[in-house]
Design a protein that fits this description.
- The complex is a heterodimer of chains A (about 240) and B (about 325).
- Chain A is built from nine helices and seven strands, in the order ααβααββαβαββαβαα.
- Chain A has about 240 residues and is an alpha+beta fold.
- In chain A, a hairpin with a 7-residue loop joins β5 and β6.
- The termini of chain A are far apart.
- Chain B has about 325 residues and is mainly alpha-helical.
- Chain B folds into two domains: about 150 residues, no CATH class; about 100 residues, no CATH class.
- In chain B, about 60% of the residues lie in helices and about 5% in strands.
- In chain B, the strands form two sheets. Chain B has a three-stranded antiparallel β-sheet. In chain B, strands 4-5 form a two-stranded antiparallel sheet.
- In chain B, α4 runs parallel beside α10 and α9 crosses α13.
- The N terminus and C terminus of chain B are likely disordered.
- The chains are: A alpha+beta (about 240), B mainly alpha (about 325).
- The interface between A and B is large, with 53 and 66 residues.
């Protein structure tokens, strides 16, 4: 037992001053590293407009705190739609996204990507794929859209998984010929899931219809706006000052 | 190396002259395979696990799904990386139960097997930093100034603080640990520049800088495995001939001396990655994998009979190496 009493080698003792100095130095270094990392992450972290999140993805800032970047959703996707973002891909590195023009979401009924997600970054409460909100399709270029030229392209309408619901063809008089009709593809932003099949299928070299992030695509009424349900609002109701 | 350097750093040059015939004694004694047993085993485990993960995406044979951040074995058993799970909790997100179970399973495994077993037997970054360290020895690059070893705990604190402040898993942007898996399984090669940076850092700026001083994943696994029953034990410390071969290859050489020269032969310092390289390179077979309980007793009984444990101040290791090693701590 005398072995233990001998203290055969010395452990370097740190006095209080050294401890405080080291802690302060390391703290400063870590502060700078933290600032640098945060700046990089924040500047890289803006989701590019053409990058869509998988169905059920939480709102972007919540998604970034939840996603562990494991790629289980990517491996679960039967159509190779999803991929893990690389640096400069327009999404936070390692997070899943898809580009509609390349491979759109096929809207599987059993939503395997959500089932695979271990973190809840893809909300498991989304049970109907038609309730998904990956973005909103917007017919952004009426000038080049063939249907707006009076042709019957209709491809975006035909491929829409929610045909006659998320995209309808609105008949309008063709002002050029004056006796033909134009069938204008019109997106219903309430039901569009943002799957991107329309953007993928658009026959133009660059799609005239594009899936945009919901925040970019949609306006938002002011909180005091009473005209939200215009069709149900009567003059009488307004005169009575009835708030909806 | 210039003559001037030699004269000012005699300690260094002596250690180096021994390094030139790197663990030649062990190879002569045990044969090449005997002196590389655990190294080869480790590489087999490291690459084998990557291979098991890669079977799915590359060949369609799904054993493991996901990557080291979170995975699913045979569609039933979840695993999750403790660091990314902690970051997520710090950011305020409550995950699915599966992820918590996965993290708990991983923590349990490494708490029993030894925390930094992850670093030396699983983590692919280890391949990069071991290569850099091997090249340093081959090229006889001079010892560099040491970073503080506890920087990793500061970095770990930072990594867990950032999601708390920003609600964002900031570290996962640059975390080098998942990069190789991501590259092989998902074809995203663009993060590999981080590994190149770590390689150059380890090779030219500070030896063993990443895995031995900075990596927060390693720091967390070290804490997880602090009380693990399986340790590397200098069970025959009495026959150590101070050849310093283990010091040359050890990625955390500060852990060796207390076990070799102190009263307790168990390497209980959580920094030890339990890579087993010290076992390989020792011609005297001083080190073994053992449980910490059996080891202590065996050592105490032998140390009573032999007096080799008490270090004499004239032994070569105390004269030449110990002052440097002390500084390392």
């Amino acid at each position: 037992m005398s072995q233990q009493v001998k203290r055969p080698f010395t452990v370097k003792q740190v006095n209080r001053r050294q401890f405080l100095a080291t802690t302060a130095k390391a703290g400063c270094v870590m502060g700078l590293v933290g600032l640098g990392l945060t700046a990089t992450a924040k500047s890289q972290g803006q989701l590019a407009p053409q990058a869509c999140r998988p169905p059920g993805a939480l709102e972007e800032s919540d998604f970034l705190s939840a996603c562990v970047r494991c790629g289980l959703c990517v491996e679960a996707c039967p159509y190779d739609t999803l991929s893990l973002a690389r640096w400069f891909d327009g999404a936070a590195t390692g997070t899943p996204f898809f580009t509609a023009r390349r491979i759109p979401c096929e809207m599987c009924e059993d939503i395997p990507c959500i089932k695979a997600c271990p973190s809840g970054a893809l909300d498991p409460q989304l049970e109907q794929i038609s309730d998904a909100k990956m973005g909103v399709a917007v017919l952004i270029d009426e000038k080049n859209c063939l249907n707006f030229k009076g042709l019957r392209c209709d491809v975006c309408y035909r491929v829409c998984p929610l045909i006659d619901n998320a995209i309808t063809l609105e008949r309008q008089r063709n002002q050029h010929s004056d006796h033909h009709a134009m069938f204008l593809p019109t997106v219903n932003s309430d039901t569009c899931t943002g799957c991107g099949k329309c953007e993928h299928a658009c026959v133009l070299d660059t799609a005239a219809i594009k899936v945009l992030p919901t925040a970019l695509a949609l306006g938002k009424a002011a909180a005091h706006d009473t005209y939200i349900n215009t069709e149900e609002t009567t003059l009488e109701m307004l005169n009575k000052g009835l708030m909806l | 190396m210039s003559n001037q350097f030699m004269s000012t750093k005699t300690v260094n040059s002596k250690a180096k002259s021994q390094m030139q015939g790197e663990h030649a004694a062990a190879i002569a004694e045990l044969g090449w395979f005997g002196a590389h047993k655990y190294l080869l085993l480790r590489r087999a485990v490291q690459l084998g696990l990557l291979g098991l993960f890669a079977l799915g995406p590359l060949l369609g044979v799904w054993l493991f799904k996901g990557n080291l951040s979170a995975s699913l074995l045979l569609d039933t058993i979840p695993f999750a990386d403790p660091l990314v799970s902690l970051q997520m909790l710090a950011s305020g997100h409550i995950p699915e139960l599966n992820l918590l179970i996965g993290a708990a399973l991983v923590i349990l495994f490494y708490a029993l097997a030894g925390g930094r077993v992850f670093c030396s037997w699983v983590c692919p970054v280890n391949l990069v930093t071991d290569t850099a360290s091997w090249l340093r020895r081959k090229l006889n690059l001079p010892r560099t100034s040491e970073l503080p070893r506890n920087l990793r705990y500061y970095l770990l604190a930072l990594v867990l603080l950032l999601p708390l402040l920003t609600g964002n898993l900031i570290w996962e942007w640059v975390n080098p640990v998942p990069l190789v898996y991501r590259a092989v399984l998902f074809g995203s090669l663009s993060g590999l520049w981080i590994l190149a940076a770590i390689f150059l850092l380890d090779l030219f700026i500070a030896e063993r800088a990443w895995c031995g001083h900075l990596c927060p994943t390693g720091a967390l696994f070290g804490l997880i495995g602090k009380w693990s029953p399986i340790k590397i034990v200098a069970s025959k410390a009495s026959v150590c001939d101070n050849c310093m071969d283990c010091f040359a290859v050890c990625p955390e050489r500060q852990v060796l001396k207390p076990a070799l020269k102190g009263p307790n032969p168990v390497i209980s310092n959580p920094d030890c990655t339990q890579c087993g390289r010290c076992i390989d390179v020792c011609a005297q077979r001083v080190f073994r994998y053992q449980t910490r309980f059996t080891a202590t007793q065996a050592q105490l009984s032998t140390s009573d009979s032999t007096d080799c444990q008490s270090p004499s101040t004239t032994s070569p290791i105390r004269q030449h190496i110990a002052p440097k090693a002390e500084k390392d701590q």
